[in-house]
Amino acid sequence: MFTLQKKRKGKPVAASAIENRRVFLSWSQMGPHDLFFGGKVLQSIDHHAMEVAMKHAEQKCQVISIDFIRFFSPARREDILVCHSSVNHVWNCYLEVGIKVIAEDFRLLEQKEILSAYFLFQAIDENNLPTEVPLVVPETAEEQRRFAAAEKRRALRDKSLTIL
Q1: Residue ranges of the alpha helices (H) in the chain?
Q2: In order of start, what are the domains of the chain with their CATH numbers?
Q3: What are the backbone dihedrals phi and psi of residue 107, each rounded to the nearest 5 degrees, phi first?
Q4: Residue 102's closest CA among 83, 127, 119, 89?
Q5: Counting C-beta atoms within 10 Å of the first and last residue's C-beta, which end of the chain has fewer, N or C?
Q6: How many CA atoms lie within 13 A of 14 on its CB side?
């Protein structure tokens, strides 16, 4: 015996991705030595990740967790911060959005990676109940790599939850 499942539609990663979006921070978010606080950079990209999740899900989403945050370099006053974010994977009502922030120093014509993080969202309906979202369709080799890596991160998340 088998059960028929309704066919879920899928969307390509590019349909909801944000590429080269400027991240705006005010000087009041700076610490000593003209460096931006890392937490303020993370707070500002939360909005970008939410926008990607909601665009893909076509409904409200709420942040469940932020995983694997990695700070690579400090963000300085003269840096222009640019955000890249996209849906890496979808599991029923959950979406993983990967985000990377790059700093561009226009005077030296250099780029450096500032941070990367993975946001886990849950799509919710008008009654704030979890609801299924469209699958994500990785098309490029890089998108397929991120899709596979997201599956590994999910296994780590699940394993860490069973330990608690």
Answers
A1: 38-57, 141-163
A2: 11-163 (3.10.129.10)
A3: -75, -40
A4: 83
A5: N
A6: 3
Tens digit of pLDDT for each residue in 29-51? Answer: 777 787 888 888 888 889 999 99
Contacts of 70 (CB under 8 A, 6+ apart): 115, 116, 117
Q: What is the pTM of this model?
A: 0.86
Give the Cα separation of 146 and 62 in Å (integer). 22
Starting at the edge strand found earlier in the chain, the sheet holding 18-23 runs 18-23, 80-91, 94-105, 110-123, 61-71
**Cα 51-54-56 angle, rounded to 5 deg:** 105
Nearest residue to 10 (alpha-carbon basis) of 143, 158, 145, 153: 143
- According to DSSP, the residues that pair with 82 across neighbouring strands are 22, 102
Give the contacts of 49 (CB within 8 A, at least 6 positions apart).
63, 85, 97, 99, 117, 119, 121
